[in-house]
């Protein structure tokens, strides 16, 4: 597929295929998301203890009321509220003590009028009682009698049957990323296994005739593989399983074979490396040759990350990332993270509002070209007057700038720059 | 140890041990952190692929320059910058083409004046060249000659040896929580294994005669264990390993034995359950009987979470948490999370500034008692005019309120409440 609907043309520069324009990051992401298959991941059943961070694939509802009996929320005395009406310190209500109630036991007695039972927090109310007077508002007269100093209303200090979770109430919706309290709620209603979506599998195919493995000793002209490690860890953070397929030569047939074999075991393919125009063009050609629809965009008005390639091959999205580590990180945040979220079955909360963000004042002016979304790496420094964001200088080809930085802020497409002192939203790594 | 330095006395209410006052959450945390052992966790050596989120236990520095040769950052022509001085579209510099440079190979030639080599992004500069002219600013005259249309300065479009990481430069400090780019940097300098701190082990001891396992069918008066699941998952989120020790009877000797046996295998002990005064007092007594120093605080001006107990037994901090799920969650955030961070060897960034926070306008008035730090659970709703925080009503004993909520905001100790429309910072779950 050749690109339709290019939106932002920047300063007359040609894209890498010489098509004369590149599109905005928003438009590129829109094309990608529109082209993704509707298919959800396979499901798997797991114990709730292992469900943290997984995406729920079934609607969880309760087969019973929680709690299934009326419980006291305080330490005190179970009463019929009516017996306490009008009670005050000046005019206490005198009540007769019945048997104490013990935790975890069903009270044997039926409370008759004018009588109370001592009850612990969490204890079951006896029949005949509808409320609990807190210990603080009771005085002991003798071993069989107490004074109630304040009235209670019916239901006071009591959790009613089904008040926490009603029978058949939906507790966890499909698409929720499971949090600790979700696991707790399952335990509470007796659900010890959950059906979740399987983790996505993402292949990372490194290419570049200059790339050697991290454990190798590079000779002159060679460098060690950095990006496949960064990508694998970023994928792990999203909950996906990274499959590092290895380092391949920049050769049409070699890379075609690597990509085709990954189509079988991957929900997503990321090509890393290929920094030069010739290699980029070859990767674009491979994606378009596999097709259906093939390339969706090649070149985006994004810095760093401009030469990024995005496409879909059948049901599998594919990315050709620039070789610079900073560009890899930005392209991951802008394109791969939302694609992984969509494919994983996650139903997004807060309209995808970015989290893990802190505000800081920019320590120096940063300029940006209009017509380009720019991601600026910053160090966060805590000074006496609050947090400051200090731009990290250095080329995007350096991994060290990413290591020094604490996060990035974005200068949007149509903004020229940000002045020192302005507050920016820094998305932390 | 009996409590010294109580700071905030709230409305004449006695704490659970009848000592007549409770302390602020800040003061309670300060006592805990002050009493923690200086000891760091044991170390372990792991492959960098497994290091994501672990705390680095060694200072990582580079034994070599990265890159170890001058590399081009663009596709273009390697030149001696001086040869391009004064070049313009009107008056191009004519240069003679030498051999092309290939990726991953050391160029054989030494570039002489007036000559250029075609070089790909990432390619190694030949001897004699000090800069690279971008492809865009060159026109081919014939097979042996090009026109350079713009001058470059020495070093332009080149990454110098050691520019990314200098030999002996510190790349990762001790105490850093390893991020994807940190792993990438290690790979880049040939480090494939890291020494990290072992994960902390935290015992969760559930007590309560009414508590049955999640898989059991509770009879009248009994409820299923919720809190040990919530706590285990929250611990996992912090990077600690939860050890769910099981459900024990509310009996001095039983709980003493459970705690003592956990002192051997745990960096941290959490007692969950024991909602009633009698049980709380018993747990406090056990902690104080084990001692050294024993109880640090019992009762904090915090809602929910007031009856929380904190102490230290030798080198092991111990928490007695209230039984209500919402209180468990709040006490975890306020006390356990910072203690885990400190014990794990993490060096905190941004002065512990909370992250994962979004701002939203409060949808209705919320009142709070002065002299009590209150944590309000809210649902985040996206409306046309932005994000709104809707307080979740319901008793803190309900797990469902935690499941419905997206996060909490805090009404500090000395504030009476927050009015509808005010912006609050919501810490997301």
Class from secondary-structure proportions of chain A: alpha/beta
Give the number of helices of chain A.
7
Give the percentage of residues in beta strands of chain A: 25-35%
What is the straight-line distance between the termini of chain A? 35 Å
CATH superfamily of the largest domain in chain A: MoaB/Mog-like domain
Largest sheet of chain A: 6 strands, mixed
* Integer-rounded radius of gyration of chain A: 31 Å
User: Outline of chain A, from the CA principal axes?
Assistant: elongated
Q: Kindly give the count of domains of chain A.
A: 4
* Main sheet strand line-up of chain A: 7-4-6-5-9-8
What does this molecule look like?
Two copies of one chain form a homodimer. In chain A, the strands form eight sheets. Chain A has a six-stranded mixed sheet, with no helix packed on it. In chain A, strands 16-13-17-21-20-18 form a six-stranded mixed sheet, with helices on both faces. In chain A, strands 22-25-24-26-28 form a five-stranded mixed beta barrel. Chain A is 19% helix and 30% strand. Mean pLDDT of chain A is 92; it is low at 1-20. With 429 residues, chain A is α/β, with parallel strands linked by helices. The first copy, chain A, has four domains: 25-41 and 199-351, 3-Layer(aba) Sandwich (Molybdenum Cofactor Biosythetic Enzyme, Chain A); 44-66 and 164-197, Molybdopterin biosynthesis moea protein, domain 2 (Alpha-Beta Complex); 71-159, Molybdopterin biosynthesis moeA protein, domain 3; 354-428, Beta-clip, CATH 2.40.340. At the A-B interface, helix 2, strand 15, helix 3, helix 5 and helix 7 of A face helix 2, strand 15, helix 3, helix 5 and helix 7 of B.
